[in-house]
Specification:
Largest sheet: none
Radius of gyration: 17 Å
Order of helices and strands: HH
Distance between the termini: 34 Å
Structural class: mainly alpha
Low-confidence stretches: none
């Protein structure tokens, strides 16, 4: 089944990859950070990593989206 060009954008691949990387880091946070520093610090590290991942995604995705929707002259 082919996807329409509108449904498949390169920024969605980047977002999915960054989300998958963040989810894969959660067990390491649970195994390393939580035993050493406690649950509140582990949650803080996980949230900080999610925010950092979102910032990286936005830095990578915004130029791509801007190029896709830039009016052509």
């Amino acid at each position: 089944m082919k996807l329409h060009k509108q449904l498949h954008r390169p920024e969605f691949d980047t977002m999915a990859l960054i989300l998958a990387v963040w989810i894969c880091t959660l067990p390491f946070i649970a195994l390393v950070v939580v035993p050493m520093f406690g649950t509140p610090v582990g949650i803080g590290v996980a949230v900080a990593l999610l925010i950092l991942s979102m910032v990286v995604c936005w830095v990578l995705c915004i130029p791509t989206v801007a190029r896709l929707f830039k009016p052509r002259r």
